[in-house]
Amino acid sequence: METGKQLTGTLAVAVFTAALGSLQYGYSLGVINAPQKVIEKHYALSLGVWSERSALPENITEGESPPEEEKHPSVVMYWSLSVAIFSIGGMVSSFLVGFIGDFKGRVKGMLMVNVLAVAAGLLMGLSRMWKPHIMVIMGRAIMGFYCGLTSGLVPMYIGEIAPKAYRGALGTLHQLAIVIGILLSQVIGLDFVLGNDEMWHVLLGLSGAPAILQTILLPLCPESPRYLYILLGKEQEARKSMHRLKGAYDPAHDLEEMRREKEEADKEPRVSIRSLILSSVYRQQLFVALMMHLSQQLSGVNAIFYYSTAIFTQAGVSQPVYATIGVGVINTVFTLVSVALVDRAGRRTLTLVGLGGMCCCAVAMTVGLKFQNDYSWMSYVSMAAIFLFVSFFEVGPGPIPWFIVAELFSQGPRPAAIALAGCCNWTSNFIIGMTFPYIQAWMDCYVFILFAVLLLCFTIFIYFRVPETKGKTFEEIAAVFQKKKRIPKDNAELEQLKSSSDA
Prior knowledge:
Helix content is 73%, strand content 0%.
């Protein structure tokens, strides 16, 4: 019997179009790093603090910044703000994901917020026409605000339109697009491409380019059937949308599932962020969702990128920037592996394998950093640990938290849950970015022991608390959590409650 499991051209276009927002998110994450010295020079020129150092032209090549200790405090402040403001924008806007997703719909919501991305791209692309430090900071703030929204809207939309059999693989495409965006920004940010004195503003301005393509394609994408039926009550439009997404099939089974979900949602008041936090009904799902996002950001993966260039340099790599790009390639390849495995091995299994492998790599990294001055070959242990760490991250802990939140919650609380999880992700990312240099200075090479302990704790938590969602309907996943809260109706349920109460 036909169940609508096939992948259609319309579904492929819809997922690709949505993932363009994720590509833009990844590009914006990585684009600011490569041209740092060039941008700092233009900040200094604009602020009028470059002249005191320009008397040494023989020692400073084109597009190169002077030694670290000679940087003017104003340049350091504006540069730090350029980097940090992106996360702050994402933290603020992540709270609005649910409101925009429900108010305008998933497709129109993504279309509407593209105005922000284009405006941010124009501000940065035209930054040399006025004060670059002001225009770049404004552009990065607006782009961060946009990315906070798109990092919630994209997984929400893909999770709702994907057939159950492919929900994991299609959900993983959000993370795949992010890492492709990061890799793309690393490659075209090379000095001989766009990361130079003449073209750096174009490099930053291209951050808004995917939004233009997405704006052209979004009108071709069907709205989420779950949004149309459960939130708006438009059964015929939902049916039409399902036929466009899944081809010719009998949607009765899917409609019945949505009807039951709508009945459950109608019994309860609208689930806002505040009511979701206070509700005991969704407490377990919310705790699991937040812990999954914390495990992604507190895993130490950003610290790996922080250390990679220095470790590659010490290992004798003449061009460490290319080795760092190699890490980006590994990122992309193993996210593809996750796409292939997530609907076979399952979300829980891949996350456990990823976190466990990262824990072992963090220990190996600590050993390599500790002894690389005593034994030259230890640098290669550190390099191998970097590549393996990133590989394990992208197999599970990187992509899965983004879409599993949409699976853990029914239609009513889903937007609020995605907003909270996104805010948790952005906030922890910001905290790690701001505090890691201090933690690293305090713990030195032992910093990865801290991450190893955190990874072990997250592995244990997921083993005992996170259910497998592979192949389950949204209703069945919700029932896994609700089962422990309901008053038992017979002895079998009583025994099950007793056996699970110790967990």
